[in-house]
Design brief:
CATH superfamily of the largest domain: Reeler domain
Number of helices: 1
Distance between the termini: 82 Å
Strand content: 35-45%
Structural class: mainly beta
Oligomer: single chain
Number of domains: 2
Helix content: under 10%
């Protein structure tokens, strides 16, 4: 009988440690990404994974990420009846290589995992507010010529029963293009003209007809966008905050950009 109890203790301790470990975040490599061999939280929790749109958001502009720039990334969920969550997010190029650098901004709620190539929750970052939760972090974009970058997240919506049974796993991914680099002829439009530069009230943008025009601040936030059917677009910038902005013009898959100072 004593042997039986000793054996039971030996078998129980590893299971207890696993539960305690996972409550403090993913062990890593469970984001559902190609680079993680499509493994997700179902490898540790019961149930099948389902796709759910909108779990990932960022301030990366529609024009794409700029190499070396820092962006805000958010994982969020609002599922009726769920008051405890977990997650793992990672970023990969088109061949499944981990790219960019994550920065932890909520040190009490999130941490690195998978050799710092992913971010997951801490125990203090699992409790929802009226079924809603979000985690924030930063991501430093990789060097030039990385190409498309995809973010992958696996979300665990738990039933908070203290075990790995009865949970629901949701997957989501979002892909961003790399912002085109000026000076590459086959990938850029004819040079755009901005005047006056600096500008305080009116900014004139001279470019090709039927182009998409975006103005973004240095954090990557889009503050103005339109489709212009004119060669000369006039924009009222008097309400913009003082600072440097990037004007990006897209047409037929090609791109050009210029900086402007607004004061």
């Amino acid at each position: 009988m004593k042997y039986f109890y000793n054996l039971l203790i030996v078998l129980t301790i590893p299971a207890f440690l696993i539960l305690m470990s996972y409550s403090g975040g993913s062990p890593g490599g469970k984001s559902g990404s190609p680079g993680d061999n499509y493994k997700n939280c179902t490898q540790c929790h019961s149930g099948s994974a389902q796709n759910m749109e909108g779990l990932i958001s960022s301030n990366i502009p529609e024009t794409g990420y700029a190499p070396g720039e820092t962006y805000e990334i958010t994982v969020s969920a609002d599922i009726s009846g769920i008051n405890k969550y977990g997650f793992e997010i990672t970023a990969e190029d088109s061949t499944g290589n981990k790219v960019g650098t994550f920065v932890i901004t909520e040190t009490s709620r999130t941490r690195f995992t998978n050799a710092n190539h992913a971010v997951t929750h801490k125990s203090a970052g699992t409790i929802a507010n009226n079924n809603s939760i979000s985690w924030n972090m930063q991501w430093i974009a990789p060097a030039e010529e990385t190409g498309k970058v995809s973010f992958y997240v696996a979300l665990n919506a738990t039933n908070a029963n203290g075990s790995t049974s009865g949970d629901h796993i949701y997957l989501n991914n979002i892909t961003y293009n790399e912002e085109a680099v000026d000076g590459i002829a086959e990938n850029t439009l004819k040079q755009i003209e901005l005047y006056p530069n600096p500008a305080s009230e009116i900014l004139n943008i001279k470019t090709e007809e039927n182009s998409q025009v975006f103005i973004t601040d240095m954090s990557g936030r889009t503050v103005y966008s339109t489709v212009s059917n004119k060669k000369l677009l006039t924009v009222n910038v008097s309400g913009f905050e003082n600072g440097v902005y990037v004007v990006t013009v897209l047409k037929d898959g090609k791109k050009s950009r210029e900086k402007v100072l607004i004061f």
